[in-house]
Amino acid sequence: MKIDKAIKEYLNHIVIHDPKSSRTVESYRRDLIKFENYLKEHDITDTEAIDLRLIQDFIDQCIQTLSVSSINQIKSAIKGLFGFLNFRYDLIDPTINLKVRKAEKRLPIYLSKDEINHIISGFNDHDLESIFEHCLFEVIYALGLRVSEAANLLTNQVNIDDGIVRIKGKGDKERMVPIPYD
Question: For 167-181, what is each residue's pLDDT tens digit?
């Protein structure tokens, strides 16, 4: 099977039958196109000509410029592609022995109460822009939001009467966060 056709079919599959977030699909698409371009440089256009050594050479090339998490994402995209081809077309999966290492979980870095109070005291509550920034900071801090979650927050996600905010987080997962009242 031609690699470009295989990639298109796999991406279509993960959109329709194995729903992944739009960000995951887009990053897999970018990573698989990088892989396809690497294969073209080596005059390989057919999936059956791809072996573990070739995949490992591609990954070794990526290691020079990318982080561990980016490398793991590339490995996951390639493993997903060949797992799909193995399942759908009974093609040999050259990624069987390709290991994806879990990235180390890092504890979040957080601010102390003194640092939070210092930031809050720095807002000028007589200037409209500063009032907005102060409010935004308080919402992010009080609700424990990621910046992207705050940026995408809509008014219909806030229920003042019940004291609940519906947050759409990573992977389009939704969680309910209570509004802290002082």
Answer: 988 877 899 999 988
Q: How many Cβ atoms sit within 10 Å of the Cβ of residue 152?
A: 13
pLDDT one-digit tens code per residue, 40-72: 999 999 999 999 999 999 999 999 999 888 999
175 neighbors 167 (Cβ within 8 angstroms): yes
